[in-house]
Amino acid sequence: MIIFSGTSNEPLAQNIANELQISLGKREIARFSDGEIRPWIQESVRDKTVFVVQSFSQPLSEYIMECILIADAIKRGAPKRMVGVIPYFGYARQDKQHRIGEPVSARVIAKLLEVVPFHEIITMDLHNDAIVGFFRIPVVHLTALTLIANYLQSKQLEHVCIVSPDVGGVKRARNLALMLNVPIVVMEKKRNLNNTDESETYQIIGDVEGKHAVIIDDIISTGGTIVHSVDSLLKAGVSKVTVCATHGILSGEAKYNLSHAPIEEVIITDTINHPELLDDNKFRILPVASVFAESIRTITQTA
Ligand code: R5P
Question: What are residue 277's phi and psi, to 5 degrees?
Answer without folding.
Answer: -100, -5
